[in-house]
Amino acid sequence: MSDLLERLRGRGWRMTAQRRVVAEVLDGEHVHLTADEVHARAVTRLPEISRATVYNTLGELVSLGEVLEVATDKRAKRYDPNAHRPHHHLVCARCGAIRDVHPNGNPLADLPDSERFGFAVSDVEVTYRGVCPDCASA
Amino acid sequence: MSDLLERLRGRGWRMTAQRRVVAEVLDGEHVHLTADEVHARAVTRLPEISRATVYNTLGELVSLGEVLEVATDKRAKRYDPNAHRPHHHLVCARCGAIRDVHPNGNPLADLPDSERFGFAVSDVEVTYRGVCPDCASA
DNA sequence: ATCCTACAATGGACACTGTCTAAGTCAAAT
DNA sequence: ATTTGACTTAGACAGTGTCCATTGTAGGAT
Fold this sequence. Notes:
Two copies of one chain form a homodimer. By secondary structure, the first copy, chain A, is of the alpha+beta class. Helix content of chain A is about 35%, strand content about 20%. Chain A has a three-stranded antiparallel beta sheet with strand order 1-3-2. The longest helix of chain A has 13 residues, at about 50-65. Chain A is globular, with a radius of gyration of 17 Å. The interface of A and B includes residues 74, 99 and 122 of A. β6 of chain A pairs antiparallel with β6 (about 120-130) of chain B.
């Protein structure tokens, strides 16, 4: 994710130890942490980082389009660093595990004009639910 | 929605003034209230109804399959009484207005086995986002 | 190398959403 | 009318997120 740090610096983002740590924590595939989980992991690397800073930084990353907010469970928002390849989510109904998925077709095209109520529809978010292999065998 | 009350009574649901009021508040099409909005409206009809009762009653209606929980915005859960006709949602990105929509096709079929990660996929939820006519003209 | 200053971080208070509990109340079966 | 167990209540509590005044600092200017 050093390319992320590069991109951000190129946009005039002021680099601080806290922001670097947050970006590092978010690195990887199939990462979908809540803000407090990000904070917990960040603290192990930078003990004095505050919760407010993590929230602020996550909010900025979302505004910059580098990270997506995901509302798959109905509790906390989760943050998904995989913002540059469009994808949807598959969530385990029991344990909450989340995988990124790429369905066929284009759901946007499946919403006829008669069902758009005059909206300018620009985006669609698909959440599949099921039971993951671990929970099924338990 | 008196048919709802009938159905519930038929299932041995004990009828109380509070439950009746909650069910009445939820009546209608394109209704997607948060729990506290339901409480606010219920209070106008039954001033002493408590927040806990509204939460309990909504939870029971969800368990009974009479009302759906919807997580379209990332704040509070919303409750959708339109549980008997499957549908998805179209949300205004500015004002949060929500409409029920019925897209073509079956998104479940669009998730190939190779993208299921061994999950037993049982459900899919589609949220379209855009700008509603009111917000577009403002 | 040092200084400045605007931007960032801190931490604690606050707000919102939702859950829980103990005690009181009431619908409905008898 | 009585009884009983389910329902309701009020308020405390927990988790998530926001805000603000203060303090600290990155990075450009000197």
